[in-house]
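Run log // design_07
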């Protein structure tokens, strides 16, 4: 085994996806190192040749251009690549024995499709990027699921299949595409950047999000997701654990304990629901209006009476609509909104459960305990421990 190894990281550290993988690699190094990390400054053509003079070196990288692919090919050191995009790379990866980190397109598509179905959608669309194999794989997996269930997936036609256009140049094409879609429609985007652009375009056109157009991103880059209007729902991954596995694999490749091609799958862990999808796509106007009121006010001390009063309906009439359309009571719907908020806070914060009960609209701990027992079959504390373990690996 090497006494010390050097890991060259050709990553965009400004990006959530690669930054979280880097965190996992650091965690592995702290436990099993020692490893020296060299983070690329962007001058790849100058940096890669210097690695030949370093013993026990390996590379974790994105390969964004054919030139970088060729440079890595000539380097002849162990390499683990992240989400390969280029056809040039795909053609040589088996030849070179390059290992890869790649997201599971089928698992992503399945999670997204089930999520949209639960919200009552019957119209589906996908918005991807050109020249990105991972985007194409997600498109194919999602559209096939829609077709298998008797539907049609509306695919955004790329205005230029050779390159990604600037936001300003592409927006007119997105405008025309969004106008052509049947409503209400659920759109899966290939990543959060794409979701952000779609929401910006929806706002420009005056579409109601999520009532007319629901948008779901991929990667759960919290900075991008929280800055959009409305905030973007997104599929999350256990990226830190993936980085941990990548660092371990690279060490074994450097030491000779492993050889050849290896694949590390990036599996989706959950969908973080924000306002861009927080809707039930029903034709029943009473249910839609009531659900919109609940979604806006569930953190306040509201009950069935307040919902009925807002719609100027009797409680009996309101309950009948909910029973026929959703198969649940108005109180159960309020509980679900509060429960979903509480579950997110349990995973994402260290707040005590009493505070989470107040922030979620339950008012105090007792009704939240009752809701967790009824709908989740567990307690808030146990839910937090189990799901934090899944998220943090």
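design_07 sequence
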């Amino acid at each position: 085994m090497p006494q010390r190894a050097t890991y060259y990281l050709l990553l965009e550290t400004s990006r959530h996806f690669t930054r979280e993988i880097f965190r996992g690699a650091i965690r592995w190094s702290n436990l099993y190192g020692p490893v020296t990390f060299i983070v690329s400054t962007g001058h790849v053509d100058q940096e890669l040749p210097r690695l030949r003079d370093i013993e026990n070196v390996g590379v974790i990288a994105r390969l964004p251009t054919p030139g970088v692919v060729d440079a890595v090919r000539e380097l002849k050191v162990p390499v683990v690549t992240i989400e390969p995009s280029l056809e040039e790379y795909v053609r040589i990866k088996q030849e070179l024995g390059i290992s890869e980190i790649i997201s599971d397109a089928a698992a992503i598509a399945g999670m997204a499709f089930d999520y949209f179905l639960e919200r009552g959608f019957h119209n589906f669309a996908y918005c991807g990027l050109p020249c990105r194999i991972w985007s194409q794989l997600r498109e194919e997996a999602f559209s096939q699921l829609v077709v298998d269930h008797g539907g049609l997936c509306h695919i955004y036609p790329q205005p230029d299949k050779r390159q990604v256009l600037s936001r300003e140049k592409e927006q007119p094409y997105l405008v025309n595409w969004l106008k052509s879609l049947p409503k209400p429609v659920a759109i899966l985007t290939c990543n959060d950047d794409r979701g952000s652009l779609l929401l910006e375009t929806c706002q420009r056109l005056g579409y109601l999000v999520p009532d007319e157009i629901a948008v779901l991103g991929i990667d759960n880059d919290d900075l991008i997701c929280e800055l959009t209007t409305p905030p973007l729902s997104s599929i999350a991954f256990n990226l830190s654990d993936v980085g941990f596995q990548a660092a371990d694999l690279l060490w074994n490749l450097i030491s000779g304990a492993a050889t050849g091609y290896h694949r590390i799958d990036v599996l989706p862990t959950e969908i973080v629901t924000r306002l861009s999808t927080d809707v039930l796509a029903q034709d029943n106007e009473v249910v839609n209006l009531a659900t919109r009121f609940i979604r806006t006010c569930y953190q306040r001390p509201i009950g069935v009476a307040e919902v009925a009063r807002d719609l100027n309906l009797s409680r009996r009439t309101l309950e009948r609509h909910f029973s026929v359309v959703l198969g649940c009571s108005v109180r159960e719907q309020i509980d679900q909104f509060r429960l979903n908020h509480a579950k997110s806070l349990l995973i994402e914060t260290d707040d005590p459960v009493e505070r989470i009960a107040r922030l979620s609209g339950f008012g105090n701990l007792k009704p939240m305990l009752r809701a967790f027992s009824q709908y989740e079959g567990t307690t808030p504390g146990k839910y937090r421990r189990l799901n934090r373990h899944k998220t943090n690996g």
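The first strand starts at residue 5 and ends at 10.
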